[in-house]
Amino acid sequence: MIDVTHRINAVRRELGSRVLDAGQARVITISQVYNAELEDVWDACTNAERIRRWFLPVTGDLRLGGRYQLEGNAGGKIERCDPPESFAATWEYGGQVSWIEVRLAREADDRTRFELEHIAHVSDELWEQFGPGAVGVGWDLGLLGLALHLEAGDGSDPQEVAAWSESDEGKRFAAESSERWRAASVAAGTDEAAARAAAERTTAFYTGSGEAAGS
């Protein structure tokens, strides 16, 4: 059993923006402190054999300038790497290019703060339709996988993970994540009614009763 509320509460979520060469981009930031040493978290995030045990199988050249491909999901190019503290890469999916930045920082008592930014040019229409939860819920699931991996030190059975996502508990996790991204959206200045409508559509998608929200 997974304590859904505890896991949701362990994560911090924020929205912001950044000016890129191509114009204004939206930024979602998600972070969590893990009871693990920085080097162990770094290895879990950059070692292909470990990445598949908590996230997705990955192929490619996992070094500066190399390209990677997550099975059935995004691929891209590693644009910056500063071990064991940070890396940045493109996130290419469905014909769209966005960017991710991962930063690790030591905390007291051999704990490590993991922080991920996902930076994307998102049309106003798509943002109004689904809001930050379109990608935020997926990253919440990723941070949950990393937490369970660091705690147990073993891998996940893909069939068990898929079954859990379809379970009542898995759907409740997605719904609570979507609600937290709604709250983050309102805190960033989004109209309450618009944020709630977007979150309801995202929740419907992740719980199996709506159209695709994003990747």
Question: What this model shows, in words?
Answer:
The protein is α+β, with helices and mostly antiparallel strands. Helix content is 43%, strand content 31%. It has 8 helices and 8 strands. It has helices at 4-9, 38-46, 48-54, 124-130, 133-152, 158-166, 168-187, 192-206; strands spanning 11-20, 23-34, 58-60, 67-70, 75-82, 86-93, 96-107, 111-120. An 8-stranded antiparallel β-sheet has the order 1-2-8-7-6-5-4-3. Strand 7 (96-107) and strand 8 (111-120) form a beta hairpin. Helix 2 (38-46) crosses helix 3, helix 4 crosses helix 8 and helix 5 crosses helix 7 (168-187). The longest helix is centred in the middle third of the chain and has 20 residues, at 133-152. The two termini are 26 Å apart. Mean pLDDT is 93; it is low at 211-215.
